[in-house]
Design brief:
295 residues; alpha+beta; five-stranded antiparallel beta sheet; DNA-binding transcription factor activity; HTH araC/xylS-type domain-containing protein; AraC-bd; transcription
Length: 295
């Protein structure tokens, strides 16, 4: 079993130390820090990869993604992933923080509620089917703009390029969830706050009522907001996030099942085992045995 603790990597500035966005080739990223990037690690930023050549297998939250030319990968903040040491795939990648993209409320929908980065159990990959020349142009212009000296216009220019890149990707997938629902700005604020609270309070095992009280809204209103925006109840969202963290701990750490149960806030290990098996269909120990080889 793996014995190393899961490492979280934050955003690293490149040539531009003013903007929280960077563009580089996959090969460049691996040459810079291959020893760590080949091992599973959590990222505190968003990563988009466009594979232009080569093949391999990329792991995202324990699920293998077969890499082929023309593939787009979307790895959201908080996800665990690793590059393939035996792969030879290459192409441009762009990393950016939530704070960079969501400086305005209207941008939250694209990052948080489209299915590019928002599906916690999806592989977050797709094949490009349209003409790639526009993608090439945008990646090139992003990289060129990042290299330029800072000025009052740079952020908006970079943001527009990135926004168009993500919109084109959603067009490729033909999904515009946040546009197809009647979403109010206040609903988006509640969802964002709820998701942030969930990340910081996950192991405290707070109830839906608890989260609603912290948000200063009723439980019924929180139910309505999550169904309207994400199509799920708050309880389902909480359980999905807890299961994902359990999977990460089971595969990426050598702690005993009882220790992981304690870390996740369960009062009894039997309750954790029942919860995990009911949701995943396997006991924690069986899931660990079936998945530990991928790391």
């Amino acid at each position: 079993m793996p014995v190393n603790d899961l490492v979280t990597y934050g955003f690293r500035y490149g040539l531009n130390t003013k903007q929280e966005i960077n563009v580089s080739a996959i090969s460049g990223r691996l040459n810079f820090d291959s020893a760590h990037l080949f091992r599973p690690h959590r990222i505190d930023f968003n990563l988009m990869i466009w594979v232009k050549e080569g093949s391999g297998v990329h792991f995202i939250d324990f699920k293998p993604v077969k890499i082929e030319p023309g593939m787009l990968l979307f790895i959201g903040r908080g996800k665990v992933h690793s590059f393939d040491p035996d792969g030879d795939y290459d192409g441009p990648s762009v990393v950016f923080t939530d704070e960079f993209f969501c400086s305005e409320e209207r941008n939250m929908g694209l990052l948080y509620y489209s299915d590019l980065f928002n599906n916690p159990f999806g592989l977050n990959s797709q094949r490009m089917i349209a003409d790639s020349s526009l993608f090439s142009f945008i990646f090139k212009e992003l990289k060129n703009e990042i290299k330029k000296p800072f000025d009052p216009y740079q952020y908006r220019i970079l943001h527009n390029y990135l926004n168009n890149l993500l919109l084109l990707s959603i067009r490729e997938r033909d999904v515009m969830v946040f546009d197809n629902r009647n979403l109010s700005g206040k609903d988006l604020e509640y969802i964002t706050a709820f998701k942030q609270l969930l990340e910081t309070n996950l192991t405290k095992r707070l109830s839906v009522v608890d989260y609603a009280e912290i948000l200063n809204i009723t439980e019924r209103k929180l139910q309505r907001v999550t169904f309207n925006v994400l199509g799920k109840s708050p309880k389902v969202i909480i359980d999905e996030r807890l299961i994902l963290e359990a999977k990460r701990l089971l595969v990426l750490k050598s702690d005993q099942i009882r220790q992981i149960s304690d870390q996740l806030g369960f009062s009894e290990v039997t309750n954790f085992v029942k919860f995990f098996k009911k949701t995943v269909g396997l006991t924690p120990s069986v899931f660990r045995k079936k998945n530990y080889k991928i790391v």
